[in-house]
């Protein structure tokens, strides 16, 4: 795919990475703590998708929070819409709601599903709050390849529907019943990490640049904004095809975008 090449050699310093994507339960703990500390508010705002415009509650950073004024998370009772205007499966809605006093789950059975509808700002704010970080793109890829240079970030480097939550092998084929599932539903990779491929896309720290990487770089991270402020996301998701789950496959999106298949994990011992 464009931007996936050329192959370069990069050195990455020691780091640790969360073994799963951040879950609804973990994100709710952050939201309640941040709310009690005056870092976030909940505001009714207008959202737009292929089904039209509608009012939705959003978690918004206050003036004393990281990324002041930006939306961290979209709440809501629906799963959004496909690009051709069809309503998503109901299991793709945000499972986090606000009661007026606190954040809580709409369904206790979804506590260990990866948080979705989270924007890059909301992922980075979570990381900052706990004094960790979003993975750099290089860290993410190293973790995905698991010391074996695996093509896919699965238990053995191969891909099929028993190894990851994705939408099959053919681009453009959409499964209307697709949705995220609980973390640890599939076998871990050799680094004991789950769902590095599929389930939800994972935000990275870097701004996207197709030509950023060069041979022999040490701990590279692209902190230079591009013209459209797109950040890297990696790993594919439940509604993307197999090639996007490859350990080396690169993708990007706007910082203020988040939907039913965007999530994240975090790292410590981050080098910048």
Automatic annotation (TrEMBL):
GO terms assigned for molecular function: formylglycine-generating oxidase activity
Family annotation (SUPFAM superfamilies): C-type lectin-like
InterPro entries, per the entry: CTDL_fold, Sulfatase_Mod_Factor_Kinase, SUMF_dom, SUMF_sf
Residue stretches making up the Sulfatase-modifying factor enzyme-like domain: 4-267
Membrane-spanning intervals of the chain: none
A Pfam family it matches: FGE-sulfatase
Protein name (database record): Sulfatase-modifying factor enzyme-like domain-containing protein
Species of the source: Photobacterium proteolyticum
């Amino acid at each position: 795919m464009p931007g996936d090449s050329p192959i370069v050699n990069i050195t990455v310093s020691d780091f640790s990475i969360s073994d799963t994507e951040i879950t609804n339960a973990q994100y709710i703990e952050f939201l309640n703590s941040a709310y009690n500390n005056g870092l976030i508010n909940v505001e009714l705002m207008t959202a737009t998708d292929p089904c039209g415009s509608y009012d939705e509650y959003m978690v918004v950073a206050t003036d004393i929070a990281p990324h002041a004024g930006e939306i961290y998370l979209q709440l809501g009772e629906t799963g959004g819409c496909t690009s051709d205007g069809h309503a998503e499966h109901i299991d793709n809605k945000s499972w986090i709601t606000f009661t007026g006093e606190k954040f809580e789950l709409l369904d206790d059975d979804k506590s260990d599903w990866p948080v979705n509808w989270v924007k890059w700002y909301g992922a980075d704010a979570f990381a900052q709050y706990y004094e960790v970080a979003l993975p750099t793109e290089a860290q993410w890829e190293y973790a995905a390849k698991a010391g074996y240079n695996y093509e896919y970030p699965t238990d053995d480097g191969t891909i099929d529907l028993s190894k990851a939550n994705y939408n099959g092998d053919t681009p453009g084929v959409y499964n209307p019943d697709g949705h995220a599932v609980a973390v640890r539903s599939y076998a871990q990779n050799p680094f004991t990490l789950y769902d590095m491929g599929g389930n939800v896309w994972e935000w990275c720290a870097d701004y996207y640049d197709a030509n950023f990487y060069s041979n022999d770089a040490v701990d590279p991270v692209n902190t230079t904004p591009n013209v459209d402020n797109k950040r890297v996301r990696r790993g594919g998701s439940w509604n993307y095809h197999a090639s996007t789950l490859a350990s080396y496959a690169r993708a990007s999106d706007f910082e203020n975008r988040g939907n039913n298949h965007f999530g994240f994990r975090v790292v410590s011992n981050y080098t910048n």
